[in-house]
Amino acid sequence: MPKNTLPNPDADPTAGSPVDDGAGAGPDGEPVPPTPTDEEAAARRRLTGRLVRGTLWSMLGIAALGVTRLVYTALVGRTGDPARLAAVNSQVSLAFLATFATAAATGAGAAKFLPLTAARSGPAAAAAVRRRLTRWTVAATVAVVVALAAFGRVFLPDAGWADVAWVCALVTAYGAYSYTKSVLYGHHLPHRYAVLEVAADAVILVLTVAVVWWVPTRPAAGVPGLLLAPLVVGYAAFAVAAARSAPRVRPGELPALRGELGGFVAYTAVGIAAGQGFFQVSMIVARHATGGSEAGAYAAAMSLVGPAFFLPRAMGMAFFPAAAEAVGRGDQSALARHTDLVTRLLLLTALPVFGLAAMLGGPVLGLVFGPTYADGGPAFAMLVLAVFWYVVAVPSVNVLSAQNLTLARIPPLASAAGVVVGVATWLTVGAHWGAVGVAAGYLAGMLVQAGVPLVVAFTRLRLRWGTRLPRYAAGLAAGIASSTVAVLTPRPGVIAVCAAGFLLAFGLLNASELAGTVRRVQELRSATARR
Questions:
Q1: CB atoms < 10 A from the CB of 128, how many?
Q2: What is the DSSP track for 283-348?
Q3: Angle at Cα 507 formed by Cα 367 and Cα 63, nearest 5°?
Q4: pLDDT in tens, 67-95
Q5: What is the mean pLDDT of the chain?
Q6: In this structure, what DSSP letter does residue 177 have?
């Protein structure tokens, strides 16, 4: 019976032997864990309950985040021309990209090392890790803001100095938001994150309505950077409230992490900049490679795909700290079991939703942003497929990132390789295919960024899907074929036939799997009770 060979970072590094937890594989490749002791069973129930509760709270917060981003972009697009929307989205993308390599990386360190250190060494040691990460966050943010103040107009040639100042303010506010959010997750407080997220998003929407009425609709007649003010205020307010909500524990002695903390943050900075930053950079590339109208349509497509990009991340946000805690306890079989289940849940729910979204992209863009944006349907469909791959890979990326540095560096290195592939695609087809070429480059890069962690994690965990894999592949092929027809012929009747045919094919291919998933979700619901 195959064994779980994922290395244990708590083991003696000189031992060189893999963890053998006695886990096997049942029919169709589903991992069968060994019979746990009562204490281990209780710990796993707590882990599962924490994962489920965290996912539900995260879904609330991220749903609010995705809807707010979409409404914000729609308001800017509806009250101005596509050129102004492209300018504002380019500024937002640059600000977010700057935080991905700084505060988001240290925040990922908090989400991993706070629960891991607390499980190993207690809350005082975890507080010492948090203090160290906070100092790194402040220093990195200051350095990035200074660099942007000096060179911001190189990346935004049409922006004025006032616009650059607003971008720097957004970098500071969003960086603080990203880091404090991860601290809350590191302390297993997703409910506090969700409440603060909804409140901050409400502030952003109210201020956006006020600003779009005040700022003139023509870029030359006003300051587009001022449209960033609602985001700056909302994210800053979240950061202040989150910092005050986090547990206050007197820091003890910083534990000896043997370079793991700094190495993880450095690799994560590369991975986030290459992964999430890749998505934001595509907006800047689209603006330079296409005209104002086409770039505006691409900006609208990016915003419309936002909810699909953020919503499934809720499970990953809850899964990562839970995986880190399991690593701290050395419970590798729990990692295998949850990785298998979460990946299948994401795939079975995301594939039909994303397939339908790709088919409806053009008409929805026209409805939400206006008729001039409806031509973004083909680019939107490619972005949807790319984000689908990202979503399915989230559990695999998290389980690798929760391990020692040898495995944790695989996702960021894969992300960097994906950027190389994406840039090569942009150089090859970007100028010829316009916005569709930019989306195609992002899709090509994402196939590498998501595919490598999936293969490595499944190989290490010895997960075997057997007959599931051909069924999933056939369902994906049906979705791509139906979406292609619907995008090329966006008439209501054609879209309806393609959608019905895809759902029927997917349902027939995965009927037994869908029924089994319903049973597993019902079992997981019982784990949400606090024990």
A1: 19
A2: HHHHHHHS-HHHHHHHHHHHHHHHHHHHTTHHHHHHHHHHHHHHHHHT-HHHHHHHHHHHHHHHHH
A3: 45
A4: 888 888 888 877 777 777 877 887 888 88
A5: 80
A6: H
